[in-house]
Every structure is written in structure tokens, then in C-alpha cells.
Amino acid sequence: MNPLDPRLTPSRPDLAAAHLQGQVVAQRYAAGRPMHLMVECTDLRRAPSRDSAIDSQVLYGEDVVLYEAEAGWAWVQLAHDSYVGYLAHDVLAEGAAQTTHRVAANRSFIYPRPDIKAPILAALPLGGAVRVIDIEGDFARLADGGYVFARHLMRSDETADDFVAVAEGLLGTPYLWGGKSSLGLDCSGLVQLALAQAGINAPRDTDLQQQALGSALALEAASRDLRRGDLIFWKGHVGMMRDAATLLHANAHHMLVASEPLAVARTRIGAKAGGEITAIKRF
Predict the structure, then answer these.
(1) What region, left, alpha or beta, does residue 34 occupy, with left being phi > 0 and alpha being psi -120 to 50 degrees?
(2) Same-domain pairing of 187 and 144
(3) Domain final residue pick, 74, 94, 114
(4) Alpha-carbon gap, residue 161 to 159, rounded angstroms
(5) Is 219 helix (H, G, I), strand (E, B) or coil?
(6) Which domain covers residue 70, as residue numbers?
(7) Residue 32 above 50 pLDDT?
(8) Contact (Cβ atoms closer than 8 angstroms) between residue 164 and residue 242
(9) Is the distance from CB of 281 to CB of 210 less than 8 angstroms?
(10) In 3D, which of 215, 190, 217 has the Cα closest to residue 204?
(11) Per-residue pLDDT for 1 more than 50?
């Protein structure tokens, strides 16, 4: 992985991270401030504009490093996968979140009191992180205020046994370019989110995932010897195997997270220019 990949490098001609001084040329350098997201989910954009492309998303409680705040926009680097981009400045809170738990349900609610009939304060996405300070009956009390149903949470040091099962729980979720929440996902977002729940850190984009994850199998394995959890890569696309023959992937053909025979997906994707499988990776 190129350490100066622009997606992962907080560097612009006018500003760069202080730790990059001597590696990149910029008009000025900034040390950066630790911050964290205090809303349910927000978009990470390529430029400081509502019209700019969404490259990824940031989930509740996720830590970032802030390098610049200007005109309502924050230029940040995500702590989880090092992605760099812009998000609205008013969704950030000072300091690292120091979370203790993360959300294990596709969606869970923050209530103002430990009462399921109370009007909710927020809806947390799968993978969002919170700081729990007490357990009151069926509810976890949060340091920032509010209560979450405790069985929807897992400790930060816990992991899901099967990342494919996490992804299977998202079947039918709409396809969203740049999405990585249970409201919308793209192909690499699904893989990253599912692996994170299993305690495996993954890069954000398919090309980076292909480089970093698992061990490579011979491409001939696509016709035989596949198993649950194998990742199948095409140029710009990735899916995971549910079993020896069935692919699970967020895709723009179905416009949702879908399950289908690998042979069917392979034929459809292969019909496009450059649409052959580029790698098979196994954990």
C-alpha cells in the first residue's frame, strides 16, 4: 500500500499534516486535533461542498483527526481506516470518544430514559461506537446521555464469530455509493463493516482491500474449491462467498445487498470491459 496514496494522506498544496513535513511540500503544516463524530452517521466528501462526491461515511463515535475547520467544513483523517476527506464541522465533538462498546444490531435507538416507549433521541448504525458508564436493567446508560438497549451492544474487545453472518444480516440493504451503514452500502463498505465487527481492520476501497486482506488463491479456484468467507475481487468490485457457489455483495445491478450464484454474477460482470475476476483472497 502506497503510504502517500492521496486517499490516505492528509496533504494539500496549502496544508498538510505536521508528521508529513519532509515528505510532502505544503504552504503550512498542522498537528491536527483529535475529535469524534457525535451524530448517527455523516458523509465524508471529496471536497467541501454538498455537491461533492461521497467517498465514504463516518459512524457515531468514530474518531477523526481534524486538520482544518473553515466555512462550516472540517478536513479530517479517519482513525479507523486513515481515509481523508471533508465533513460538516458541526457534527464533531472535541477529543477522542474513548468508547467501550459498539452497536451489534443493524439499528439501535438512544432513548432519553430506560423506557422503550420514550421518544428516541437518535438511531445508531451497526458498527457505531458508544461509551457505556452503567447498566440499568435492560439498558446501557451512555456517558453522553441517553440509554441504549444493552443487548444491541457488544464490548469493544468482543468480536463477531462470522463476518459473513454479519453481512448476511444486511441482505436487502440499499446500494449507496460511498455508504457504509445499515441505511446504505457499497461493495467495499459492506466488506469493511462486516470485517470490523469480526475484529478485522480493512481498508475502505476495493483496490486497497485486494492488496491488504487475506492470502491469494489461484484464480482457478473461482471454478472450484471456494469456501465461505472467501473474497472475490473484480476491478472496482468485491463480494464474499456464503458457500462454495453463492456470492453476497452490495451491487449496482440489484441496487442492494444481494445473494446470487457466483457463476451468474461472474458472467454478468465479465460481460463488461475488464470484467474478469482479478483476485481471490482467503483469511
Answers:
(1) beta
(2) no
(3) 94
(4) 6
(5) helix
(6) 16-94
(7) yes
(8) yes
(9) yes
(10) 190
(11) no
215 beta partners: 282
pLDDT at residue 274 in the model? 73
pTM over 0.85? The answer is: yes
167-201: per-residue pLDDT in tens? 999 999 999 999 999 999 999 999 999 999 999 99
d(CA 216, CA 214): 7
Number of domains in the chain: 3
Q: Which amino acid is present at 5?
A: D
pLDDT in tens, 236-280: 999 999 999 999 999 999 999 999 999 999 999 989 867 899 999
pLDDT, residue 241, reads 98
Are 90 and 105 in the same domain? Answer: no
Rg (CA), the chain: 20
Going by the DSSP 8-state scheme, the letter that residue 119 receives in this structure is P
Look at strands 29-30 and 16-17 and give their pairing.
parallel
Residues 130 and 233 in one domain: no
* pLDDT bracket for residue 2 (50, 70, 90): low
In this structure, the answer to whether residues 201 and 124 fall within a common structural domain is: no
Question: What does the pLDDT look like over 149-171, one tens digit per residue?
Answer: 999 999 999 999 999 999 999 99
* Residue 221 within any structural domain of the chain: yes
Q: DSSP letter at 111?
A: B
Stated as kind and residue range, the H or E segment containing 217 is: strand 215-217
SS (H, E, C) 121-186: CEEEECCCEECEEEEECCEEEECCCCEEEHHHEEECCCCCCCHHHHHHCCCCCEECCCCEECCEEC
